[in-house]
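Order emerges. One example.
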Amino acid sequence: MYTSSYFFFFVIFVFAAYLIVVDSNVAKFFILCVEIVKVNTERFFWMIRFHPIITSSPIFQWWMMRKYIKEAEKIQKEFEK
């Protein structure tokens, strides 16, 4: 049922948990590493989303026009009140 990869990941997890318990700086380092991965992932998706070649595609233009129309309808309803 358990393979050697399970044991390998368990050993790494236990070692990381031991280091976090022993030294608080290691915990801060792990938190920063997770934040770096999160920021780089968001940056990647923003770059894909707003790249000039992609923004000239018809699908992207339809998607943006749909968003703008929804926003315009929302603003129109606010003015009608």
Summary: The chain has a mean pLDDT of 89. Residues 1-49 form one domain. The chain has two domains: 1-49, 51-81.
